[in-house]
Amino acid sequence: xxxxxxxxxxxxxxxxxxxxxxxxxxxxYYGAGAAPGVVDP
Length: 41
What we know:
The chain crosses the membrane at residues 12-32. The chain is mainly α. It has one helix spanning 9-39.
């Protein structure tokens, strides 16, 4: 993988991992913050 994306493959993988973690954690925080309000209004 040393073609066009050779120099950017490592950064692409790191960015993808960070994006996935961010995408999974943010709804978790919103869910934890909204759940008590829904369960106990």
